[in-house]
Model the fold of this input.
Amino acid sequence: MLTIKNLHASIEGNPILKGINLEVKAGEVHAIMGPNGSGKSTLASVLAGREEYEITEGEVLFKNKDLLDLAPEDRAREGVFLAFQYPVEIPGVSTTNFLRTAVNQVREYRGQEPLDAVKFLSVMKEKMKLVEIDQKLLSRSLNEGFSGGEKKRNEIFQMAMLEPTLSILDETDSGLDIDALRIVSNGVNKLKSAETATIVVTHYQRLLEYIVPDFVHVLYNGRIVKSGTKELALELEEKGYDWIKEEANAASV
Amino acid sequence: MSKDNQILEEFTSKEYEHGWSVNYEADEAPIGLNEDIIKWISAKKEEPQWLLDWRLKAFRHWQEMTEPEWANVTYPKIDLQALRYYSAPKQAKKPKSLDEIDPELLQIYERLGISLNEQKRLQGIAVDAVLDSVSVGTTFKETLSKLGIIFCSFSEAVQEHPELVKKYLGSVVPMTDNYYAALNSAVFSDGSFCYIPSGVRCPMELSTYFRINAANTGQFERTLIVAEDDSYVSYLEGCTAPQRDENQLHAAVVEIYAAKNAEVKYSTVQNWFPGDKEGKGGIYNFVTKRGICAGDNSKISWTQVETGSAVTWKYPSCILKGDNSVGEFYSVAVTNNYQQADTGTKMIHIGKNTKSRIVSKGISAGKSQNSYRGQVQVMKRATNARNFSQCDSLLMGDKCGAHTFPYIDIQNSTAMVEHEATTSKIGEDQLFYCNQRGISTEDAVALIVNGYAKEVLNQLPMEFAVEAQKLLALTLEGSVG
Ligand SMILES: Nc1ncnc2c1ncn2[C@@H]1O[C@H](COP(=O)(O)OP(=O)(O)OP(=O)(O)O)[C@@H](O)[C@H]1O
Ligand SMILES: [Mg+2]
Done:
C-alpha cells in the first residue's frame, strides 16, 4: 500500500529526514518509535503533504500512485489520514460543521453522493459510539479549549468519519488518561481491516499493548536504524535508546 | 514565511458577480451640480416647496464645507461637477402597482435573485427596489398597510405622508452633519421610508435593494425608519453595482428613530463593485448612518457585512438618549485586492443605564487596507453606562493592513467601558489541518473566515446570513493559493 524509498526531506535548508525506507502492506500495523527530535512527526507531515518541507530525494508510492505528486487534500481524499500530535484550533467552526465539509468533499472525490444533514448526523451518531465522544464537544469550536485528551479523542473520531485506508497516528496516546487510552485504542482497532493499514508513532509500549504492531521501527537522526517485531518495543522500554544510538553512530562512521 | 508569500502570490480573485449593466432609456438630469440641478430634481419629483427649501439650505451649507480627510483612505479627488445627480429608468407612466412595472426593470432584479413578484417571494420579506435614483417598486404593501405600517419609497412618502417626513427628516442626521450628509440632503433622489406605528411588531423583514446601473451617476439615497412606542422592525439593505472602469460615488444617509420600548434591527449586506484586481474602478461608498434611541428602553442594532466598494467610509452610530436604551454594532468588513475600508461606529451614551456593544471583525487580504474607527462617548448624565467593544482583525498575507482607532471619552465616573482587540492571521497550520481532512484550500479559507465572523453573521436574519456567508467566501476566493 505504502512504499517509501530513500526519502530525504529538509526544512529551511536543514535536513531532517535522511533516507527513510519503509514498506507498509494492507492489513498491517507499524509502530514508529524514537527519541525526541528524531523526525517522526516530520515523516508524518511529509506523507500528509505539509508544504514547508522540501523533498530533496526519494519517492513515496501510495496505492501505486506517486504520493508526493498529490496536493495534501487529494492525499486525504485518496485515504491518507493523519491524527496530529498537536491538533489545530479553528474558532467559530464546530467539529460537526468541519467534518460535514470534509466528509462531503472526500465523498465527491470518491464519486459518492454527498450526505444530507440527516444522513450525516446518523453516521456521526454511530461513529461517536466508537470512541465514546460527547455530542457537546462536537458542537463546540473545533479543538478550541479542548483538553489534551479531548483533542486526541476528537482526532480519532475524525478518522472514523473519514474512513481512511492509511492512518498515521502521531502520539495519539499522549494526553489520554488510562480509560481513554483503552477506549480510543479499541476504536482504532475496530476501524482496522484487511484493506487498511496503520502507522502509530509513540513513545510508549503501553499503547502497543492495545494496538498491537506487526512491526516496530526506530527512527533516529532522520533514519530508520532498527526494525523488529513488537518485542523490540519492550526492549526499548527496558533499555532506552542509548544502545540504539551507539549502534547507529558506530555504523555511520 | 516565504511559503506564506508564495501562497499569496497565487492570489487569483474571482470576478465580481454582479458586474453587468443593462441599457434602458433613462430620464436624466444634466451633468453637474448647482442650484438649478437641485430645483430640477425637486421639480421632477413634484416635491413641496418646503422640501426644495430644505435641499437648497443643505446645498448652500455644503458649499461652505470641505471634504473630510481624516479617514485612513486615499483616493483621487472626486470631481463632483462631472457627475449626474439624477437618473431614472423611463417608464411610460408611474406604475400604480407591481403589475405595471416595466418587465425589463423587473428582469434586472430577477437577475440579481430578487423577485418583486409577491407570489414568487418565498417568505415574508417585503422589498423596496431602488434602481439608480428611483424606487421601482415595493412589495407586500397591502399586507403591511393593514397593520398601519408604511413601507414605501421615499418619494412616495413625501407625497403621501408629508407630515411624517417633515417631522423626522434630518432629525437624526442634521443636514449640516458632515460633507457627504449635506451633499446627500441637497441632491438625494430616493430611498425607503418605513414607519411602524405604536404597539406593532412588523411581521416580516423589510428590505431595500439598491442597484446602481447608469454610468457617471451618483447614487444618493435616503432612508428613514421611524419606530413608535413598543414597536419592532427588522430592516435589511442590499446593494450591487455594475463593473465599470470609472469610480462611482454613493453617498447615502440612513436615519433611524426609536421611541419608547421600540426596537429596530438594521442589517446591511454591502456588495458594491469593489474595483478590479488592479484597483481600477469601484464604488466610493461614503455613508452616514445614525440612529437615535429617543425613548426609554429602546434598542437599535446595526449589523453590517461589508464586502464591496473600492473605498468605504461608514460609521453606523447610536445616540442612546432614552434611559436604559441599548445600542449594538456588529460588523464584518472584508477587503481584498486594493480595497480600502474605514468603518466603525459611534456610541453616544446620554441616558442613564444605557448599554452598548460593539463587535467588529475586519478581514484583510491582497493589498487592501482595513481600519476600524470607533468612538464611545459617555456624557455627564449617563450614570451606569456600559460599553463592551471587541475589535478583531484577521490578516491574509503580508501586503495588507489592519488598523484600529478606538476613541473613548468618558464624562461620568460610574461608566464601565471595556475594549478588547486581537489581530490574527489565517495560519498555515489551520489550512494544512483542513487540507489533511480533504478540504480544499479555498473552502478551508471560507470555513475559517466564516467561523471568525460567526458572532456577527449570527445576528443576521437566516436568509441573509446564508447569502452573507457565500459572499464572504466569494470575496476571498483565491485569496490563498
Ligand atoms: N523550521 C525548522 N528549522 C530547523 N529545524 C527544524 C524546523 N522544524 C523542525 N525542526 C527540527 O526537526 C527535527 C525533527 O522534528 P520532529 O517534530 O519530526 O521530531 P519528532 O521525532 O516528532 O519528535 P517528538 O518525539 O519530540 O515529537 C527536530 O530536531 C526539530 O527541531
Ligand atoms: Mg513528534
Q: What stands out?
A: Residues 1-14, 119-123 of chain B have pLDDT under 50 and may be disordered.
